[in-house]
Structure formats: C-alpha cells, structure tokens
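1st attempt posting a full record on here, be nice pls
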Amino acid sequence: MPSTLPYNKLTRLENFGHSLSAPSFLYCPTSIEEIHEAFLMAKKEGLAVTLRGAGRSYNDAALNSLGMVLDLQGMNKILEWNPETGVVTAEPGVTLEILWQVVLPDGWWPPVVSGTMTTTLGGCLGMNIHGKNNFKLGTIGDHVLEFTALLPTGARITCSPNKNGDLFRAMIGGMGMLGVFTSITLQMKKMDSGLLQVDAYPVRSLDEHLKALSDGAPQHDYIVGWLDTMNGGKNLGRGQIHAADYLHGEDDPNPKETLKLEYQVLPPYIFGVFPKSILYLFMRPFSNNLGWWGVSTAKYIASLRRHTFRQPHAAFHFLLDYVPNWELSYGRGGLIQYQSFLPQETAEGAWREILTMSLKRSLPSYLGVTKRHRPDDFLISHSLDGFSLAMDFKVTRSNRSKLAAMLQEFDQIVLGAGGRFYFAKNSETTPETARRFLGDDTVERFRALKKRTDPDDLLESDLYRRVFG
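the predicted structure (as tokens):
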C-alpha cells in the first residue's frame, strides 16, 4: 500500500560517519503510547519502522529508506536509582553520559561502556556493545537484570535471563528488529575512586601486539591497543597498549574529590582557550594518505617512552568525545568502519593479510583499535575467544567502489579464519556472509522469533534488509 504521508515530511538521516544517508519519515515519541500509535500509523500507511537512538552507528542500522524512523532520544528519564545496590532502571533514550553522571557521585560506574558517552541505552542493548573490558565483564547485555519492551503487535512484555529468556537473549543484540525497549534495568559496578591507573607502552610488531593483549588481559581491568595502520613491512602491526586498573582502598588519597562530576567532565578547550569544537577543521589537511602516515608515525614515536599515569574514568573510556565532530575531519565523503573479530589462533595471519592488502592498494585505514574478547550466549553475537580490530576508512567519490570491493575481500579472509562481524559497524556485510558466520540455525531461530514478535514485519531497517534479505 503506497504511503499517503506528505512528501515534505521526509527527513534525510545519516549514519555517524556521514558516508550513508536515507530519506525517512522521522517521529520522536516520548511515551510508550506514542510508540504504539506510530506502529499503528506505519501499518496503516504500509511503512517499515526503524528505531534510532543517538545515530552513532557507523553503518545503516538506524537508517530506513522511505520508511518511518522512531527517534527515541526523548525517552530519556532515569526511572529508579538505588545507590545502595547499584541497580538502575532507565528509559531507552538515556545516554551513557546521563547514566554515569547519575551513578558516579554515589561510587558506581556502568560496567560496560562504548568509546563515546553519547550512545543511548536502547542503542547499546540493540547492538550489545562491548568495551575495553570485554575479556573480563563481557558485553552490556551480561549486566542487564531485566527489560520491558513494546512489540509491534501492541503487546508489552518483561524479559530477564529467566523470564522469556529466548527473547532476552535475542532482543539484546537484535538490532531493534524484534521490539522496542521501554525500560532497562542494569547492575552498575562499585568504584572506590574516580581514577584509573593506566600503563601505556609500545609494541613493535603484530605478533607482539596480540601477545601483549592476550598476556595483559588477565592482569588488568581494561586493555586496549592502538595499531599503526599506515606502516607495513617489519613495522606492520606496531602500536601502543593502554592497560588500566581500578584504584582500591587507600590507593586514591582523595576519592570524594575524584568521584565528583566536575573532576570527570572533558574540558571543551585546549590550553583553556582554544575550542575543541572547531579542532576537526585543523585535522582536515592531514586527512589523506601522506598526512595520516605522518600523524601515525609521529604518534608511534611519541609512544616509545613507557609511562604510567592516573586518569579519570570519563577521560579513559570516552576517547571519541575528546574532539567534538572529529568524524567531519574525513571530508565530504565521510568514513566507514570495518571491524573483524578473530580467534586467537588465526588473528595474526588474517590481519597481516588484511593490513598488507590495504597498504598495497593505497586504501589504508586511518585508525586501528584492538581489543581482547570472550564469547557470550546472546543469539546474534559478534564475540569469541580472541581479538577484534576496528579500522576507519575515508570514503571519497573516487575510492568508494574500490573500497567496497576490498572490504568484501576482507570478509572472505575473516570467514576463512573462523572470524565474526559486528552489525553496528561494517556496512558491506551480505546475507551470505552473515549466514556463514552466524550459522543457519541462528538465522532461522532469529527469523522465527521475529515472526512471533512482529508478524506483520513492521520492523525493518536498511541494515536488516541488507543482511537478512
């Protein structure tokens, strides 16, 4: 049935990297009743519905070409907070920033966070985010005690690990394709200090890089690596490791001060005078292969001196928020991110092939981030016992098709090495690739649950259509 909604209500939405866009009918509900009304309207008008939080996905997860998009950022209330137990219940539009600013003064911190504090809890659960401590505390879904959801049928359900457990493990990580989270109950992690002890040290090769992540993970609370993606040969895979630990007891002489919000807030100025909000403009001249080679080389040289320091939680975790609008430095074509997850046994060989190929084709990644991971039991899962490598690629009019073809080749390398992918990141994943890493049984179980919760197939996104057909 063709839509009768007026064309002038279409809004062009973009992914976080500004490399993909789609015109959609945008609605901003602030209550469960308004979400239900939107479902009824979409069914009447013959429109598919996509859920959107802060729009921080690097791909088309929150895009819906000529369909309806429900922006849930208006549902952003903390419904209940218990500073004695560390249990919080919040609406799906609550961001990590809102969350940590509520719980930290009472000595708590979200157990799993993304690299930016602007993501919403609904989005975090929809993609089941991981952090720099995935090897120890798993994904955010591992810390959800319960959630309530509205299904496209109008039914309201409550899910926990022991109640509607199949939907609990499928909706978390389910890309928002089974229903809408309406409240989320999470267990926070107790903190004795607002500081982390950070050890930063260099690694000189890919095998040393992965060994540092593997050996360091059991000894630390967090570990993450920066990988120099611009240099090959004997320097392939070199970079810097940041390992961090909580402070306990008397380690912090003034915990009341470091747990204050003003101690954690990222400063908006450099040297107290230069606004960070325009810093991306000064980054643009370096956003080319030669410029980024210089930046990466200088960064590695600067990392050669091992040093230990103390850093506020917000500063350590939310690196992507240091420079507002940093993604605009990539220029008009934007960027895409390619993230692969590989078992310990095959990661080095697969990434050596991928990194070498990108350099030979003059399509290098401008950023490489590595992490250590463990498996989980959620239905749609990217995690495994191994490592992840996230790579940022600049998109231009001249390289877009060549870049897409190269990433398809990357997929075959990763699949051949027993790897997996993350639906919040990669923008080229095909149905064949998804079925190969998820397995036929997982795909069919997900389809069966979707038929149960969304019999009219109202919930769709550009990502869902691309990956599941």
